[in-house]
Amino acid sequence: MAVRAHRFAAAGNWQQAGDLLEGLPSSFDEEPFVQDLRAAVEAQGSLPSLDAVPVNEP
């Protein structure tokens, strides 16, 4: 879901990206990629690199 949120944000669809992030399980809240992506979506700023996606991302 985080990768899909990243793709929506990259396309400028910040609302959809935020909605997807809200649906992520809380177990991902501590992942640096998810934290950085949330901050970027909230600020509508620079997105984190997809290289940092957790291996076990749903």
What does this structure look like?
There is one protein chain. The protein is mostly helical. The protein is built from 3 helices and no strands. It starts with a helix and ends in a 15-residue tail after the last helix.
Number of strands: 0
Mean pLDDT: 92
The secondary-structure element order is: HHH
Cα distance spanning the termini:
6 Å
Helix content: 40-55%
Radius of gyration: 10 Å
**Structural class assignment:** mainly alpha
Q: How many alpha or pi helices? A: 3
Beta-strand fraction estimate = under 5%
Oligomer state of the chains in this structure: single chain
Shape type: globular
Can you tell me the residue ranges where pLDDT is under 50 for at least 5 consecutive residues? none
Query: Could you describe the largest sheet, including whether it forms a barrel?
Result: none
Give a quick summary of the entry.
The protein is an all-alpha fold and 58 residues long.
Task: Provide the descriptors you would attach to this structure in a database record.
mainly alpha; 58 residues; single chain
Helix and strand topology:
Blueprint: H1 2-10, H2 14-22, H3 32-43
Helix pairs in contact: 1-2, 2-3
